[in-house]
Amino acid sequence: MDILLLIGGLLLILLGANGLTDGAASIAKRFNIPSIVIGLTIVAFGTSTPELTVSVSSAMKGSSDIAIGNVVGSNIFNILFIVGCTSLVAPIVITRNTLRKEIPLCILSSVVLLVIANDVLLDKGASNILSTTDGILLLCFFLIFLSYTFAIALDGKSQATDEENNIKQMPMLKSVLFIIGGLCGLVYGGQLFVDGAINIARSLGVSESVIGLTLVAGGTSLPELATSIVAALKKNPEIAIGNVIGSNLFNIFFILGCSATITPMNILGITNIDLLVLVGASILMWFFGLFFAKRTINRTEGAFFVLCYVAYTVFLIYNA
């Protein structure tokens, strides 16, 4: 039964990713909106829905480690595994604007989380906690991010790239239905996959902490993985990279912001090693895009990303 959940969830994820990518790209072309804006907003928010559901519900139930661990683990998975796997399928071309603004903003979000999660080290507090004030601060950053994406949309409406000229434009209603149907497939398929994976892991005797840090984080990021790979195959690299960057920003600024605003969250199981890995992965993505292969993350670099994620996972399991 659990194997069927895995297979069924994966099929729904793949179908949902295909529909979401086609619908979002069609709307972007219709309104002359840059693909990066669609990737950073509609696609990123849609594929981050599983993380939003898990983190907010966990925070409300008092399971703050699951809420924070899900976001941190998902963001590491997004950069190292998703960007790595996507570039193995098709090298990801990164625009100058993405290198100069979007990726640095992604690095900033990781650094902000590292700072506000270190009350004991920086403020000599009794414990590390994401307070209501921290949550409001994160939501303020999220509003700045949204303002930035709207500015891109206004500045870039008259500009069309070669990739956007190749996008198939569908009727508006069909595009919206594709997006809604795709999101439903991604969210429900991701839930089925996570449930199946958790049941299998438990039956094999894997600890709950390892499940939370790896399977739950990776499972809730499956929509991002499927969407980015499909977008890369459809020659929409801006949606592929925008989806990853946007999802990471949504996860930290919006999801953790909402969770901490609803209820303060104690940080117990997530260490500075995990947070530093997240910061390092963000910097690595910027470094590879800036200095190698003409703003392209190629297959060799993608393989290195995947190996880094495997090494991090082995470290978690070994130290569990």
From TrEMBL:
UniProt cross-references to Gene3D superfamilies, sorted A to Z: NCX, central ion-binding region
Sodium/calcium exchanger membrane region domain ranges (all copies): 3-150, 175-317
A Gene Ontology molecular function term of the record: calcium channel activity
Keyword Secreted recorded: no
CC per GO annotation: plasma membrane
InterPro entries per UniProt: K/Na/Ca-exchanger (IPR004481), NaCa_Exmemb (IPR004837), NCX_ion-bd_dom_sf (IPR044880)
Membrane topology: Multi-pass membrane protein
Keywords on record: Membrane, Transmembrane, Transmembrane helix
This protein's record includes keyword Oxidoreductase: no
Residues passing through the membrane, by range: 76-94, 103-121, 136-154, 175-198, 210-233, 240-263, 275-293, 300-318
Compartment(s) where it occurs, according to its Swiss-Prot or TrEMBL record: Membrane
Entry-linked Pfam families: Na_Ca_ex
GO annotation terms (biological process): intracellular calcium ion homeostasis
NCBIfam families cross-referenced by the UniProt entry: calcium/sodium antiporter (TIGR00367)
Protein name: Cation:H+ antiporter
Organism, as annotated: Parabacteroides chartae
